[in-house]
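Bug report (template v2)

What were you trying to do?
Predict the complex of my protein with zinc ion.

What happened?
Run completed; filing so the output is reviewed.

Input:
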Amino acid sequence: MGSRQEQDERTMKVVVVEQAGKVSVREVLRPVPIAQEVLVRLDHCLLCTWEQRMFAGTAKVNFPFVPGHEVAGSIVQIPEETITGFSVGEKVTVKTLDSCGHCEACYQGFDNLCTGTPRKRTYDGIPSSGGLAQYIALPVSRIFSLPDQDLDTRFAAFAEPLACCVHSIEQADIALGEDVVVVGAGIMGQFHVALSRARGARVIVVEPNKERAVLATKMGAMEIIDPFAEDATQRILKLTNGRGAHVVFTTITQTTLAELYIKALAKRGRIIYYGSFHPDGDIAVSPNMIHYSERVITGSYSPTTKAFYTAIRLISYGIIDVRPFLSAEYPLAMAQEAFRKAQDPQTYRVSINLCET
Ligand SMILES: [Zn+2]
Ligand SMILES: [Zn+2]
């Protein structure tokens, strides 16, 4: 009886990166939620830099792999053993990245730096980060209900990238009226601009691309520096009457710039290396310069649960407008084209619609 339908209910489609430059859609067994988990039907998944690197063959990952981690959808099943206030049908975003919940980092609220053993996810034996799949089973502690249940889930999927930036902003502890420099105005730079403005800072953006500079101004940048047209650190010193910036966020990958922008900091200024550097390398820092000036050099890696919770509020309440960053959307069947499009440096985020096959 109805074996076709029975099979449909047991399976789902996932996007598999088979090898560098090659993506396919496969049918695998649908995950079954266990106690304290719920099953979420995912509507949209955005392609982040990590997925782009995987497709380009420069990410450290063994193929085949089911990537994806910037997602939103709705709860479709809550097992009886799961005790939760969530309801079936509730629109949610989810934190696919696992953390153990009981190491020192997790207990202190820095689950982004978890030192425990994350649970490995596989679909029919294919390792996965869980996002480019039509369904995902997750513990209730990693489910975030949308405060605005009318919010389009394609925009709720921006909670993860925004959460990364929320954590970065918290690292900088921006005070009202401070001078904040954002180096690079890709999507992450743009989010840093909007969040810094929301925190009451004067925002200075370093970006050579004209279109990005225009959008940065819309997001709240008050000064734009073209680093190809002028000496960026000199201009920052000039804009701050020789004091330097209170905060610098780097969202670029060149190690030389990691060193350069320390020079643009005020005393007690904080530099946050938001993005990772490729290739990695050493930089020269004078310990006495740090001693005498109390400058702080730190980084920001991945979002905490707290940042996730904050990010979905910022989107739901319209405090941060993520709509300009959805550059293109493709149905599941066109996943290969979606990955190719995401390689285009002109795009901010490309989305795969997991409902449309
Ligand atoms: Zn991401
Ligand atoms: Zn942990």
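What did the reviewer find?
Residues 3-158+322-353 form a domain with the Quinone Oxidoreductase; Chain A, domain 1 fold (CATH 3.90.180.10). The longest helix spans residues 159-172.
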